[in-house]
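Researcher: Quick one. two chains, 681 residues in total.
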Amino acid sequence: MTAADRPPGRVLEVTGLRKYFPIRQGFLRKVAGQVRAVDDVSFYVDRGETLALVGESGCGKTTTSRCILRAISPTEGQIVFHTDMGRVVDIARLSKHRLRPLRRQMQMIFQDPFSSLNPRKTLLDIVGEPLLVNGMKNRRDRVDRVSELLRLVGMRPEYMRRFPHAFSGGQRQRVGIARALALNPSLIVADEPVSALDVSVQAQILNLMLDLQAQLGLTYLFVAHDLSVVKHVSDRVAVMYVGQIVEMAPTVPLFTTPKHPYTEALLSAVPKPDPRLRVKRIVLEGEVADPAHPPSGCYFHPRCPYAVPVCRVERPKLEAVAPGHFVSCHRARELSLKGVE
Amino acid sequence: MVAHEPPILEVRDLRTYFFPDEGTVKAVDGVSFEVFAGRTLGIVGESGCGKSVTAKSILRIVERPGRIVGGEIHLRAPAGNGRAATVDLVKLDPSGAEIRGIRGGDIGLVFQEPMTSFSPVHTVGNQMEETIRLHTRVEKAAARERAIEMLRLVGIPKPERRIDEYAFQLSGGLRQRAMIAVALSCHPRILIADEPTTALDVTTQAQILDLLRSLQAQERMAIVLITHNLGVVAEMCDEVVVMYLGRVVERGSVDAIFHAPKHPYTRALLRSIPSIRAAVRTKLPTIAGSIPHPYNRPSGCPFHPRCPERIPGVCDLSEPGPRVVGDGQAASCFLYEESR
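Model:
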């Protein structure tokens, strides 16, 4: 079964996801507080689409993706996964044992192509490993499948006997993608897949991801900090700030008519590669809030240029302002914010 | 390039090679550019193009087995009594008194990694006072006063308290500000910033770039900005030098580089960057292949194996020199052979 044959609809529904890390202090390692890395996050991903999770470092985007893969267990919330067979399971509660058969349906593409491939293994072993683990015991079959996968990501199958050190960063990232595709996963989580690559190579990998999605009907959860990269690959974007989603919308409205002041500031801060466009940027005052001691009310209010008294006391809810466009801001409907054309 | 006055720093045909056991790596191979007071020069390129080694060569801090094997780096002394003397930094003893006075004195340096550039066992203030007292004869108390003043200048809140903190107690943005404060504490005439914002988030990056711009306006400092981020270059620089495999492939004003690029590498690089203004879900034009390994340097023009406009029998045999292709713009490419 290839991904394209799967029924359309939801792949993933995350509701009220929370992940708190305890802060331990003193000789007895007593819990002195909590870091609210992910603090009430809800979203969904449809089959065949790309949802991007963007935000600055420490906003919880990676923790969210790791909870979804159950690399770590969430503190609270539901992660509903629609399996290939049409079953609906809450991954957040499954035991390790019951989770195992589901793992093959969720794969990951890592950020650093240098540390994510075992230097002692050949490409055949690296890409063939998930096949072997999942029951493809016949070596001939594995060689065939690995050749097919390498060809798919634009590498010559003859290279499969070589070791990772023989390849450049871009080629290694292709190997990482081939490994993620080996088991025909329903969902691919890509955590900053191009941020460690050179500019001229980034474009190759982004194009490859777009091609593979069109060809195989893949579903991506794309975690990134670079809004320019996100714009090239996503159908929808969720912007995170201090463990929460502050805005989520289809890509075009999010970039052209942002509704959250933080999104506006983020868009404005991205340097535009054109010297004729040197405009006054919105420069946010201060620093990102500490997730161990978040501010009262809206977490963004101390830095928000549009804050009013209510922002200090009441935490806004994520609400729809247009079909598919969700914002968590008290003033979302009255503000007219600037995006990029 | 509008040169109202002589450049304060002039690099001519700089060559810095590394000699590891496996062979020779020509990290910087014939690089020339000028730096003017109050202006920003951008040095752009991908990894391995030699941009950081160029910066280290200027300050004479190239690590072994690297060595400057040729070229000149002229630093113009401050214009006193009408005569402007120049020093050739290449000729100085890398551990001598003169270069130590220039390092951190005339030329300040901001590194990419603010975490690893600070000592973890000394407070920020300690390290700043040391720098100040190395270059100016002041009392400890006066040095501390000046350090606090610098921290305030770069926008660190409560500097009189922050000065006694260690680097690990500061956030990434504050640490980079402190790094800039150290570099600026002796009022350098030239600030070399090697990827100053690469490790930072976009909103912090915007703060740091604004800070550099306003400090430059106040002190008429020259900035050499080394980066791979073309967006940062477009926003900050007056002149741009584009490097590929240790060579300058094109140089010109920022407007010429972005709106009339001549070298095929510059053009390809500009086309291939993801832009926030692009249409949603569009494929990007790419540059074929990848950057060659330093031991595997192609013959002829270093870019020819990846170049869509290469001329067979020409580009793979000899190396092109810089050719004037516009007002203050030069490209090292055989395409412009006849337009000399």
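The mean pLDDT of chain A is 91.
Researcher: Thanks, that's what I needed.
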